[in-house]
Amino acid sequence: MPIPKEVIEAQEKSNDLEFFKERVKTMPLLIEWANDEIRDNKEVLLTAVKVDGGALEFASNNLKNDKDVLIAAVTQAGWTGCYASERLRDDKEVMLTAVEHDGQILYYASERLRDDEDVVRTAVTNKPLIIKYASLRLRGNKEIAKLAVSKATKEKQNVISYLTPELQKDEEILNL
Length: 176
Description:
mainly alpha, single chain
């Protein structure tokens, strides 16, 4: 399979800031072929992640630690929270925004945020099975358990299996 001409052009212009400022507006993943300095340019990365959050993969570590860039990326594609720095995996606003778009990202949240009722409630609303990554305390929270089980379809029994033993036997939860 031949290499697309856009990729060849990006590779040839890897040092051309103006080229990337313009091209990421329509082809944000071309940022992969930019030099390190351009991949550390906040303006370029913000433009790219607002079009395709997946461009965050190619951001510098510095920008993976930038809250503005992360919020923009996870708003466009919640799953990109997996690229967040350790510091931002512990930032409630970043992770709450991410789990609003993709509950699966609870897996990448800090231990502290896996024990945060707002974050976990939001995550299980759109990905009930993700309750398995919530803290033990919240897997024993009846309201969160009811929410997760009520949102589950085929995986209802699996969701129940991740609850605390007391809630696994709770009649109200079993009858949802």
